[in-house]
Specification:
Helix 4 packs antiparallel against helix 5. This protein is of the alpha+beta class. The strands form three sheets. Strands 7, 8, 9, 10, 11, 12, 13 and 14 form an eight-stranded mixed beta sheet that branches. About 45% of the residues are buried. It has nine helices and 14 strands.
C-alpha cells in the first residue's frame, strides 16, 4: 500500500464518528454491525464515475463526495428505512491531486455527519484513469415494513416531496456558463445540486402506514414513475399544472416542466397512497400530482387533454434538446 493511501485511510479513520450500529468499524477485515432486533437489513450500492456521473470541471470535489453518499441514503429513504453504516470503495488515478480527494471525503463525511451515518469501511485502489467511487449503504427497517415499488393500487393518489427539476436545470446552467461564470451565480446553482436525502419523510410515511409504493427520484419523474407502474402492474395519469417545479431560470416555464418531468438527481420521494396526505410532512412540502390507473402506461393531462407521457431517461432527454 503506497504511503499516500495509508495516510488517506488514517485521515478518514480519524474523521469518522461511530454510530450505534457499528461494533467494529475501519481497521479490521470486516466491519461488525449490530442491527436492531426485529429489523430486516437493507443494502444499496451506487457508482459515481468521473465523466459519467460528474465532471471535475463542473462539480466541485466536496459536492461529488456529498452526492456520492446522497445517492445511497436516498435509496434507504425510499424504502422507509434508517441508514446504519456506509462503505466506500474509491479508485483514483495517480494524476488526481490529493487535495481533490480530501475535499471529496470532506463532502461525503459532512453529509454522513448530518444523518449520523458512520463510514464503517471500504477500499482504495489506483485506477487506470479518472475517479470511480462506489458507495454501499446498509440500513434497516422493521420486519416486513419496507415500502416497495410494487404496492401501488388502481385509484391511489400519486405524491412527490419537495420540488423537481432544479438539479438538472442547474447543471445545464453550470455547463453553459463554465468557465466564465461569476462565483456568486455558481454558488447559487451548486446549492440546487446538493440534495438532502428525504430520510425523515420516508420513515414518517412508513411509520404512519401512508405509502402503498415508493421510489426516490434519481433518474427523473417520468422514468421513476414508470418503475412503480411496471412493478405494480398499473398505469398513471399526472396533471401538468400540479407538478411542483424548481424555478431557477426566470421566464423559462416550459423548460421548467421538462426538467421536472425528465431531469435527474433531485432525490425527492415519489409515492402512492389511498389516503389524502397532508401538504407538509417533517417540514417538507408534499404535492398530489395524479392518480394510478388500470390502463398501462403514463399519461400527462394539460388543458383538459390527456396525452401519452414519454419516458425519457436524463441522457435521452439531453440528446433530444
Ligand atoms: Mg432508488
Amino acid at each position: 500500500m503506497p504511503l499516500s493511501e495509508r495516510r488517506l485511510i488514517a485521515e478518514i479513520r480519524g474523521a469518522v464518528r461511530g454510530g450505534d450500529a457499528v461494533v467494529t468499524g475501519i481497521g479490521d477485515d470486516c466491519a461488525v454491525l449490530r442491527i436492531p432486533k426485529g429489523h430486516e437489513v437493507l443494502v444499496t450500492t451506487d457508482f459515481s464515475i468521473e465523466n459519467v456521473h460528474f465532471r471535475r470541471d463542473w462539480h466541485p470535489a466536496d459536492l461529488v463526495g456529498w452526492r456520492c453518499l446522497a445517492r445511497g441514503l436516498s435509496d434507504i429513504a425510499a424504502m422507509g428505512g434508517e441508514p446504519r453504516a456506509a462503505f466506500l470503495s474509491l479508485a483514483v488515478a495517480g494524476d488526481i491531486p490529493q487535495p481533490w480527494i480530501r475535499r471529496f471525503m470532506t463532502g461525503l463525511l459532512d453529509l454522513a455527519g448530518r444523518f449520523k451515518v458512520p463510514l464503517a469501511g471500504g477500499d482504495t485502489a489506483q485506477s487506470a484513469s479518472g475517479i470511480q467511487a462506489d458507495i454501499v449503504v446498509i440500513g434497516s427497517v422493521p420486519r416486513g415494513k419496507s415500502i416497495l415499488r410494487s404496492g401501488a393500487k388502481v385509484g391511489d393518489l400519486i405524491y412527490v416531496t419537495g420540488s423537481l427539476g432544479g438539479s438538472a436545470a442547474a447543471l445545464d446552467e453550470v455547463a453553459r456558463l463554465n468557465p466564465g461564470s461569476s462565483r456568486g451565480m455558481r454558488t447559487e446553482l451548486l446549492r440546487q445540486m446538493r440534495p438532502l436525502p428525504r430520510l425523515l419523510a420516508g420513515q414518517w410515511l412508513r411509520q404512519h402506514k401512508i405509502a402503498s409504493a415508493m421510489i426516490d427520484i434519481s433518474d427523473g419523474l417520468s422514468t421513476d414513475l414508470s418503475h412503480i407502474c411496471e412493478e405494480s402492474l398499473v398505469g398513471a395519469d399526472i396533471e401538468a399544472t400540479a407538478i411542483p417545479r424548481t424555478r431557477i431560470l426566470p421566464g423559462k416555464e416550459p423548460e421548467a416542466l421538462d426538467y421536472a418531468l425528465h431531469g435527474g438527481d433531485d432525490y425527492e420521494l415519489l409515492f402512492t397512497s389511498s389516503k389524502q396526505v397532508a401538504s407538509n410532512i417533517s417540514g417538507l412540502n408534499v404535492t398530489s400530482i395524479g392518480r394510478i390507473t388500470r390502463t398501462a402506461g403514463l399519461r400527462i393531462i394539460s388543458d383538459g387533454k390527456a396525452r401519452r407521457l414519454p419516458v425519457y431517461g436524463w441522457e435521452h432527454f439531453k440528446k433530444r434538446k
